[in-house]
Amino acid sequence: MREKAAQNALVELGYPAPRVLFASTDAAPLGGAFLIMERLSGKPLPEVRMLGMARIVAELQASLHELDANAFLRALARDGLAPQSFTFEAHLEQLANRVGRFSLDGLAPGIEWLAQRRPVPGGSHAVCHGDLHPYNILMAADRVTGVLDWPHAVVADAELDVASTLIIFKLVPMEVSDLSAPIRWLANAARPLLVAAYLRDYRRRRQLDRGKLAYYEAAACMKALVKAGELRLAPTAAGSPNALFASTFTERALGHFRGLTGITPVLPATTASVA
User: Is 7 contained in some domain?
Assistant: First the structure.
């Protein structure tokens, strides 16, 4: 399984991902595929500290991007996985296939825009988490004990990973968090400062290409819009209601994609509660 292979490869490289002890695709025991991982101490970063959160995320991400990406890919190959399946090209192809499978025709121009403007391959690539945000980071006794949730891991331009985190920081409504109302209000007010601090702290460790960053922000928005479209067509497929896609996040992602590309994606009409 991808997540098992990725996490164990990262453990081998000294990164604080939880080691996977067992993985199964057999749905009989628990109703779906599952992983058994080592238990890590700590709580999600926002429950431990708010001050300095941008620095912690940026430094963890920069440390990930400084790992040996080729060693990571070799570890995946030893686990029987094709390294080419952990690329942005494979990710974009998967998005295009999902758009076709669900007949999300209103997203097709956006997919075409991404395919035509894909950054020229070359240069060094990095191991990317693909969904790094404060709730995926565990802390205990003022130290990071683990980074969770690796199904989106790829080897690509580091800007892909930074862009994914930026979209979360910029667009995810605070209302979907479990923070108290006063803290949510403060977090919303401080959002521009959080984004600026995160970029500043990351750039202290590594350079970023502005053009690539904008491109991958558009790609991250399209990833969210494809998921939103699927949920609108099959709202009960994911089980319990999805608070993120029932929020204003989808419209924010649509607007951000339009601002970056000049293309207005069109989603199916909402026919039932998003699940």
Answer: yes
